[in-house]
């Protein structure tokens, strides 16, 4: 069941992207059908993903005066056969010659049928946000219900990241790519399953491993379809976002000064719909402090749990 949706964006120019894109989309939708170079015939489609089926309309082609058609893809030349399927990607010259008249042409472009990549970010309260990471198409249709009625059409690549709210349950999200230049919407969508969450479970950092005096690695346990943020604190200062993570369970942190500073880390399960995080427990590096008192050297340790090889 659909409950509502919004567009979330972190960029101030996102609305301008959308206005420009809608203008281009409206202009491209008005061109069909498509005339040949000299308007001898028309085709219903001239660009799309493989396999692309087109229909030729040629009023001058009759049983008495047939037309010879070469579809340009290596298939046999035919007469008055007006429905044709291009099975392979490529650019083809369709040539039609009426009996006793000059031939005419049109270019047919068949694109590779690529299922676009996208990431699903779970939100609390059964929300979700989608980030399209593909850059093969001019636009992307986001179908949160997988019912062939997309809720959003986005320019690509785009800073826009649509969000949607479900009732609790498991759903299939589909993303289909399409080119603007008179392209048919026949490319195969990529689909992914998504199960809603009432809240985002807090992650856990398992180990912090010191590689040398400047580098550490963190290993942690995460869940699918959740975006994470690793945060760092230096010498007890405020936590700051070090890196946003998705689909990984280890992170290398470089260019530290472990001999001089105490570094603490926490991992947050980030809900992009409301900006709230659920945090792991904090884990810190081990800084040794050496002091001398009355000819006695004292070594104390600022240690965090889970530290190895320091």
Structural account:
The chain is 5% helix and 48% strand. It is mainly beta and 310 residues long. The chain is elongated. The N terminus and C terminus are likely disordered.
Q: What topology does this entry show?
A:
Blueprint (H helix, E strand, L loop, with lengths): L1 E7 L5 H15 L5 E2 L6 E2 L3 E3 L2 E6 L9 E4 L7 E2 L3 E4 L3 E9 L5 E8 L6 E5 L4 E6 L6 E5 L8 E4 L5 E6 L3 E9 L11 E6 L8 E7 L5 E6 L5 E8 L5 E6 L4 E4 L9 E9 L4 E4 L3 E2 L2 E7 L2 E7 L4 E2 L2
Parallel strand pairs: 4-10, 18-28
Antiparallel strand pairs: 1-15, 2-3, 3-5, 5-8, 6-7, 6-9, 9-10, 11-12, 12-15, 13-14, 13-16, 16-17, 18-19, 19-22, 20-21, 20-23, 23-24, 23-25, 26-27
List keywords for this structure.
single chain; 310 residues; mainly beta; 5-stranded antiparallel sheet; 48% strand; elongated; disordered C terminus
Q: Sum up the overall morphology in one term.
A: elongated
Main sheet overview: 5 strands, mixed
CA-based gyration radius: 29 Å
Based on helices, strands and strand pairing, what is the structural class?
mainly beta
**End-to-end separation:** 53 Å
How confident overall, as mean pLDDT? Answer: 87
């Amino acid at each position: 069941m659909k409950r509502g949706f919004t567009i979330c964006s972190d960029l101030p120019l996102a609305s301008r992207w959308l206005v420009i894109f809608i203008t281009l989309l409206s202009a491209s939708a008005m061109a069909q059908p498509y005339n040949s170079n000299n308007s001898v015939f028309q085709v219903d489609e001239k660009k799309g993903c493989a396999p692309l089926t087109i229909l030729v309309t040629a009023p001058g082609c009759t049983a008495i005066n047939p037309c010879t058609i070469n579809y340009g893809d290596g298939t046999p030349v035919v007469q008055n056969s007006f429905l044709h399927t291009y099975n392979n990607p490529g650019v083809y010259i369709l040539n039609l010659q009426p009996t006793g008249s000059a031939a005419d042409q049109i270019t047919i472009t068949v694109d590779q049928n690529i299922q676009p990549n996208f990431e699903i970010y779970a939100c609390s309260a059964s929300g979700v946000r989608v980030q399209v990471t593909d850059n093969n198409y001019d636009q992307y249709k986001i179908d949160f219900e997988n019912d062939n009625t997309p809720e959003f059409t986005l320019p690509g690549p785009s800073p826009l990241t649509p969000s949607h709210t479900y009732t609790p349950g498991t759903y299939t999200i589909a993303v289909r790519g399409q080119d603007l230049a008179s392209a048919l919407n026949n490319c195969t969508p990529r689909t992914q399953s998504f199960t809603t969450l009432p809240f985002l479970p807090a992650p856990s950092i398992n180990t912090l491993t010191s590689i040398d005096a400047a580098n550490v690695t963190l290993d942690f346990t995460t869940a699918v379809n959740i975006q994470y943020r690793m945060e760092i604190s230096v010498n007890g200062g405020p936590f700051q976002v070090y890196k946003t993570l998705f689909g990984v369970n280890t992170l290398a942190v470089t260019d530290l000064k472990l001999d001089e500073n105490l570094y603490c880390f926490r991992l947050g399960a980030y809900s992009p719909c409301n900006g709230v995080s659920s945090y792991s427990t904090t884990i810190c590096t081990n800084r040794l402090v050496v002091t001398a008192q009355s000819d006695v050297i004292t070594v104390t340790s600022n240690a965090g749990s889970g530290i190895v090889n320091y």
